[in-house]
Amino acid sequence: MSEQTTMTRDEAFARIRLLRSPNIGPVSYRQLLARFGNAANALDALPDLAARGGKAYRAAPADRIEDEIAAVKKAGARYLFLGSPEYPPPLAEIESAPPILTVRGDVSVAGRPAVAMVGARNCSAAAVKLARDLATALAEEGFAVVSGLARGIDGAAHRGALSAGSGGGGTVGVIASGIDIAYPPEHADLQEQVASEGLLVAEQPPGTEPLARHFPSRNRIIAGLAAGTLVVEAAPKSGSLITARLAGEAGREVMAIPGSPLDSRSRGCNQLIRDGAILVQSPEDVIELLTGFDGARRSTFREAVPTWIPEDAPVADEGPADIAGLLTTAPVFVDEIIRQSGEGAAAVQLALLELEIAGRLVRHAGGRVSLSS
């Protein structure tokens, strides 16, 4: 936790405990800090908020957080908090930016202009070579190559970027497990090389196995770290296309390499191009797309936000709105709830926060919410 020059150890501990507590996600975490000023106060308020939402509540046990911190230290990793100077600005811009990451390696790699490269696990030999060559060329031009350390295209992208050597842009590996778990097992050596020569990033606590539900969360980090996402080879329904969609939602460039319509592994890329992704065939195409008019590499396509607490966060002197009748299990935009309720944004956000902490509300991409089924 040494990077937190303005955060006490007690506050850092409380923030970890807050995030690990039941029903706390990135949005509710930020709103709680905005409303109560610090994590300790937010933890104290959770039982009352949940009770108003209709459920009893217990925060994460302190001894579990102590064990987690010890595991992070044992793994040679450290925490990176949203709002810290080292937190990657492009990732901080996305709505669901992870409040806390665990990292191993050189955090400055994530601050360089970056390209995400993703694709099929069961990929062709030609696609592996293409991904490796593209990654090498992009890293040699100063771009950090971001990927997910999966089999196939991900592994080729990391290896290509690493082959550019210490003078290149480096590589960032984002994993769906805890920082101390290597997955897939055959990439254990590659994961260790990424951690020692680049940057390894995990959102899940140490010891967490890579469950299926963790991969979409991992994908949003891959997309959020990069100015653009390049899909090399992918099936129509794949995690790579999820990453591309998340990149587009974040206002980043989406690129794809075309392939034969006869090869099912190329249909996802062809579908992306049909839907508006940029067709690229060489490193020069990617570099041109991600370079500004002044010739400088672009690390983001939007101005950096001045603060990581959302402007519509609830304020301390306004009570919750009565919105129960407006919610169903069908997702609806929060703006629509505010409009139909006639209440202030802060009051609606507080009511949603109470329901979420009580486990009765689910947040969806794009600022939508629904009652839990």
UniProtKB/TrEMBL annotation:
GO biological-process terms attached to the record: DNA-mediated transformation
Residue ranges constituting the DprA winged helix domain according to the UniProt record: 312-367
Domain of life where this protein originates: Bacteria
Domain Smf/DprA SLOG positions: 79-290
InterPro entries: DprA, DprA_WH, DrpA_SLOG, WH-like_DNA-bd_sf
Family named by the database record: Belongs to the DprA/Smf family.
Protein name in UniProt: DNA processing protein
Lineage, uppermost ranks: Bacteria, Pseudomonadati, Pseudomonadota, Alphaproteobacteria, Sphingomonadales
